[in-house]
């Protein structure tokens, strides 16, 4: 490999990494802008929820479709088209004059984000060879880890200094730069779909099934007191499951399926997607609750919260390239397994640190454990996910990996949130009766706290009106301890999820410590 070619490849990696960073950042960056949007659009948080949900839904639904199109017609073409679509949608979102336009723009933006995310890993694997491939995938894993954790910091800074449209406008110049670099430096992959028919039925069924399941989870997240058996929740979940089962039946029978189900006959690949799912359900989902703890209860601003969360994300920058090199020499199986257990220890330390007087000083040791695990597992997972995959299916393998990671995040946010709500409500029911105040007023306050949920209960307890009441201190302490009970449960549950991921890695991943390259079986 010549020095000139090598430089071009690293610039190509920069272009793909920039696309991935923007696509994943926009999953979380909007959170900190919601209060400003509420004022500017004169609306409620409930109405604004679809600014978040539109991106999450469309992103998850289109990941596999964009992966398949890239495998069939050239990954660079689809990646580049996705990047351009993302930039255009970002500009429209920044100029949006109504919530409807913003919601539609977010959905279109998510299609671009899905295309960039799903094809970047396969493009990196095909643009690099030998030991450099492991290093490049490690760097890409670093980008994934950093982008997922840096939303509060970047979003907070932009909103505080430029208002909410800036979180979309910032994508335009960086996106244009990524487009130019992609056109010049990224090498195209073969078009494997020249003699194939597009599996339209498979694409439709996969999109419908994933949409129904994720939408059902979103409905449950927004209505925590609805029972799982409620048809407004279970109808979506059961319907989505049936559609995905039908999808698998169709894929097993047609000549050119969207997804080669034989991938799931390999224990190694099953292990990879389980780790991806637990990474989303444990680590990425927990970030939502950690951000609420630091902003709503400790009282840090969005920017202050983001700066402190660098304790987690900085490890991805430090460890990603190092892990990429080490993965060529040592067993990815055990590196992933041990890293997940380090993450579990981090969550356990977080659970131990939670108290009514908790501060960053108490939290940082656990955050370091989470950061080390995330910084190790993400790049290792990228490399392990590409092992033994045929060249014509690398995009789909990458897409599946990202689908399970995103699905895990959604399931984790809902599941951990329900556990937190249950512990929060149980503590309130058991301790509010000790407050010396009239029963009707106490019942009204309890209902208000439960309806508001753990995230917003602090605002009620510390409102100006209640803060001057004679029972204020005792009341506020009960609300804080109720929240703490829920947060301890969330942290312990995340630790258990991380342990499951570590055990799955130890039992299912291949042990290949001497492999210096990724095996890619080219088709004739």
TrEMBL record:
The lineage of its organism: Bacteria, Bacillati, Bacillota, Bacilli, Lactobacillales. InterPro entries: EmrB-like, MFS, MFS_dom, MFS_trans_sf. Residues 12-513 form the Major facilitator superfamily (MFS) profile domain. Belongs to the major facilitator superfamily. EmrB family. It is a multi-pass membrane protein. It comes from Secundilactobacillus mixtipabuli. The chain crosses the membrane at residues 12-36, 48-66, 78-102, 108-128, 135-154, 166-186, 198-219, 231-249, 269-286, 306-327, 334-351, 363-381, 487-509. One of its GO terms (molecular function) is transmembrane transporter activity. This is Major facilitator superfamily transporter. The keyword Transport applies. GO terms for cellular component: plasma membrane. Keywords: Cell membrane, Membrane, Transmembrane, Transmembrane helix, Transport. CDD domains: MFS_MMR_MDR_like (cd17321). The keyword Metal-binding does not apply. It is found in: Cell membrane. Pfam families: MFS_1 (PF07690). It comes from the Bacteria.
């Amino acid at each position: 490999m010549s020095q000139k070619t090598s430089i071009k490849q690293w610039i190509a990696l920069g272009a793909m990494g920039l696309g991935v960073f923007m696509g994943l950042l926009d999953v979380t960056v909007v959170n900190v802008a919601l209060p400003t949007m509420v004022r500017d659009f004169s609306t409620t948080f409930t109405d604004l929820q679809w600014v978040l949900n539109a991106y999450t839904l469309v992103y998850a639904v289109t990941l596999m479709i964009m992966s398949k199109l890239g495998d069939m017609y050239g990954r660079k073409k689809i990646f580049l088209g996705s990047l351009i679509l993302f930039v255009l949608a970002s500009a429209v979102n920044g100029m949006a004059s109504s919530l409807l336009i913003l919601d539609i723009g977010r959905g279109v933006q998510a299609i671009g984000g899905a295309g960039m995310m799903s094809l970047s890993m396969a493009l990196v694997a095909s643009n690099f060879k030998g030991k450099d491939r492991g290093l490049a995938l490690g760097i890409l894993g670093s980008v994934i880890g950093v982008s997922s954790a840096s939303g509060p910091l970047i979003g907070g800074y932009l909103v505080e200094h430029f208002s909410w449209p800036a979180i979309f406008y910032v994508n335009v110049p960086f996106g244009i730069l990524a487009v130019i670099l992609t056109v010049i430096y990224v090498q195209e992959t073969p078009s494997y779909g020249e003699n194939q028919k597009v599996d339209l039925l498979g694409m439709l069924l996969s999109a419908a099934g994933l949409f129904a399941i994720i939408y059902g989870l979103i409905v449950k997240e927004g209505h925590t007191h609805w029972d799982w058996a409620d048809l407004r929740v279970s109808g979506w979940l059961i319907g989505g499951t049936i559609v995905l089962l039908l999808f698998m039946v169709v894929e097993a029978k047609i000549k050119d399926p969207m997804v080669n189900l034989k991938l799931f006959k390999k224990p190694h690949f099953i292990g990879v997607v389980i780790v991806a799912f637990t990474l989303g359900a444990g680590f990425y989902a927990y970030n939502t609750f950690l951000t609420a703890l630091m902003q709503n209860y400790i009282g840090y601003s969005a920017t202050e919260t983001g700066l402190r969360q660098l304790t987690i994300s900085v490890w991805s920058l430090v460890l990603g390239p190092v892990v990429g090199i080490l993965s060529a020499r040592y067993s990815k199986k055990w590196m992933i397994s041990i890293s997940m257990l380090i993450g579990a220890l981090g969550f356990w330390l977080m659970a131990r640190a939670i108290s009514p007087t908790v501060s960053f000083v108490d939290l940082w040791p656990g955050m370091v454990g989470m950061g080390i695990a995330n910084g190790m597992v993400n790049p290792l997972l990228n490399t392990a996910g590409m092992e033994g995959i045929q060249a014509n299916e690398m995009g789909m393998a990458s897409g599946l990996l990202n689908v399970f990671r995103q699905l895990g995040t959604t399931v984790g946010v809902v599941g951990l949130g329900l556990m937190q709500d249950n512990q929060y409500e149980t503590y309130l029911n058991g301790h509010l009766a000790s407050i010396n105040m009239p029963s009707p007023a106490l019942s009204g306050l309890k209902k208000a706290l439960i309806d508001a949920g753990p995230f917003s209960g602090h605002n009620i307890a510390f409102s100006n009106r209640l803060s001057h009441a004679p029972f204020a201190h005792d009341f506020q302490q009960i609300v804080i301890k109720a929240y703490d009970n829920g947060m301890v449960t969330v942290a312990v549950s995340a630790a258990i999820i991380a342990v499951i991921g570590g055990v799955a890695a130890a039992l299912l991943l291949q042990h290949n410590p001497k492999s210096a390259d990724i095996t890619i079986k080219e088709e004739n």
